[in-house]
Amino acid sequence: MSWPQRGVYFFQEQGEYRRDGGARIVRVGTHALTDTSRTKLWGRLSQHRGRASVAGGNHRGSIFRLLVGTAFLERRGVQSATWGLGSNAPAYIRAQETDLEGEVSNIIGAMPLLWLDIDGSPDSRYLRGYVERNTIALLSNYGKEAIDPPSPQWLGHGCNRERVRSSGLWNNNHVDESYDPAFLDRLSELVDAMKVK
Fold this sequence. Notes:
The chain is of the alpha+beta class. It is about 40% helix and about 10% strand.
């Protein structure tokens, strides 16, 4: 596949639907929002999905993996003394976490994915951040009546982050914010631009 260098991504999840029957977005994200970051879209998605060949990954490099792992542990009634601790871990701890990392890779790897190509000018990172932040705020159920609530079976109900449980999204940031209505016009323009590529 021909992946754009930069963009915003949207994960869906099996069994999660909007009230109108369409697939519900469960995770929104982007990458390279700082001057020092060189991450490309595919690289960031690879961090989230993990390695397909060995069904592993690194939850210390992906908050999405961390959140899914905590919910998986809760659903299974299992505890991990090391999951989510620190930004790095020695090899023997990572080896103990291999099975759980594999489960997380399987869960995220099964999620359908959409993306918007937002590349071009040096200011594109601000546009990516704007789209990410406003999309999360729009889709979030945090602190308001849910328009498209998660299903009762949604894995995120078991997450240890209240913002994930209350928002219905695998996001921790921006779920308590309000979206800018003007963003919808910009989002529509970006979607239309993808149709002509």
